[in-house]
Amino acid sequence: MRCGLDLDDSTTLWAAPGTESTERWLRATLGAALGLPLRPGAPDVPGGVRLVLDDTLGAEAYRLDVVATRGVEIRGGDPAGVFWGAQTLRQLLGPDAFRRAPVRPGTRQGLPHLRVEDAPRFPWRGVLLDVARHFLPKDGVLRQLDLMAAHKLNVLHLHLTDDQGWRVEIRRHPRLTEVGSWRARTKLGHRASPLWDERPHGGFYTQDDLREIVAYAAERHITVVPEIDVPGHSQAAIAAYPELGNTDIVDTTALSVWDTWGVNPNVLAPTDTTLRFFEGVFEEILELFPADAARFSAFVHIGGDECPKDQWRASPAAQARIAELGLADEDALQSWFVRHFDSWLAARGRRLIGWDEILEGGLAPGAAVSSWRGYAGGIAAARAGHDVVMCPEQQVYLDHRQAPGEDEPVPIGYVRTLEDVYRFEPVPPDLTGDQARHVLGAQANVWTEVMEDQARVDYQQFPRLAAFAEVAWSDLPAPAERDVADFERRMTAHYARLDALGVAYRPPAGPRPWQRRPGILGRPLDGPPPHR
Ligand code: ACM
């Protein structure tokens, strides 16, 4: 005798008040995949699906029960918990549940009897997507949100601006997208490569596109954290509005959107004009990314990374600014710039988050740090009482090659295999318990210099993002004790789900022929420092 529960045409769905987002998702996604109407029912229909809030469970926690006589019950500590429970229900139903339409209509959708009690280790389980270096059209971002939801990841850090492109419509500064959203050509491969893609590259999200993205994410209990990267990584903005640059030493009218990679010397000028300009940008950003959209929506990322100080050292105007403000040096000038936006955001009920360089020169109390240059910035920030997101490049930069072989497409950075990512530990052992509580969570960063389209992004993200998701969600043992064999066994089932989702992951045996990029230079493994 088989022991379990079948879902079929007669299965009803009942959702308690507060669980409607999961009700909608179950009908639209699971229902569509399996051809199940999931008609509205009542709480006591035998064999039905029930969604319930239960305040004895914690934030994002859920309990999933499958009982033959009663049906499926998902209890969540909050609406997000119910949603994550529904993701687990989909996993239990097999790979066809990850398609968009039924391929085997009428097939029995069997579930085993079970109880799953589950809760996340970290509240911030993030992915950074760099849509500046290579633009990902809106559909791709919505698909990314679906892939994140399937992996119980809940923060999409959207890197919207950089030297190579400005991707968000700002109504009061239209040239940011008219000029800044496209470049004439693109370096193909690592910056040392001699090759160019001579096709213009560009694109941007309209304000309504971003409202749609934020709403689509919120419906999936995902926060979209926008990043406007200042005062470095700003050549696209300066190309659009030359007055933003250090005009006393550079002819900024001659700058165009950057077509190659690396750290760019053209940074914002520390003037009142620049401050007012970016306050205007952030005013529109705050409208597009409202603080109450999802759990971490108060945060606005202001970048702050890799801002070379050469132009400020050379610029009489910047030096006069340093003197006028009574600052010690150019590092203090950057700190002043960051603090300006920290107070500006705080006055509007928002929280600043930035790359760990923002710690240099002292950081305002409410600000949080994305620790990317290893753990050190995160440790220093947590010790100083700041919240931290751990995303060290040595561990979770998914642009880095995932195997040492020559076949990897445009390989850059460290070799970081699926196993390496599975052994990533977000909380460094040097933190005390109180300090460790400042680690909001972890984030995998997907920089796209060498990822020209969605298939390349898929390849770099998967399967490693599945390992990352487990690290961010589960209470795993210390890295050396993690059961990699068990993870890989479970990955076998997961590859079938990724196939059903249409994800162009890296197969365990290496890239498929069309996933290679022969002849396009990456960065040799034995070359100078491993940075991109
Ligand atoms: C970074 O990778 N520059 C944050």
Q: What structural category arises from helix and sheet content?
A: alpha/beta
- Overall morphology: globular
Instruction: Report helical residue fraction.
Output: 25-40%
Bound molecules: acetamide
Rg calculated over all Cα atoms: 24 Å
**What would CATH call the homologous superfamily of the largest domain?**
Glycosidases
Total number of domains: 2
Number of strands: 22
In angstroms, what separates the terminal alpha carbons? 58 Å
CATH class of the largest domain: Alpha Beta
Uncertain ranges: none
CATH architecture of the largest domain: Alpha-Beta Barrel
Mean pLDDT: 96
Query: Within the largest sheet, what's the order of strands?
Result: 9-10-17-18-19-20-21-22
The helix tally amounts to: 17
Task: Report the sheet with the most strands, covering strand number, pairing sense and barrel closure.
Answer: 8 strands, parallel, barrel
- Looking at CATH, which topology of the largest domain would you report? TIM Barrel
Work out the strand percent.
15-25%
Summarize the topology.
Blueprint: E1 4-7, E2 12-15, H1 20-34, E3 39-40, E4 48-53, E5 62-67, E6 71-76, H2 79-92, E7 109-112, E8 114-118, E9 124-130, H3 138-150, E10 155-159, E11 161-162, E12 165-166, H4 175-178, E13 182-183, E14 186-187, E15 196-197, E16 201-202, H5 207-219, E17 223-230, H6 235-240, H7 272-288, E18 299-303, H8 310-314, H9 316-325, H10 330-346, E19 351-355, E20 368-371, H11 376-383, E21 388-390, H12 393-396, H13 418-422, H14 433-436, E22 439-446, H15 454-461, H16 464-473, H17 484-501
Parallel strand pairs: 2-3, 2-4, 4-6, 9-10, 9-22, 10-17, 17-18, 18-19, 19-20, 20-21, 21-22
Antiparallel strand pairs: 1-7, 5-6, 5-8, 11-12, 13-16, 14-15
Helix pairs in contact: 1-2, 3-5
This protein binds acetamide.
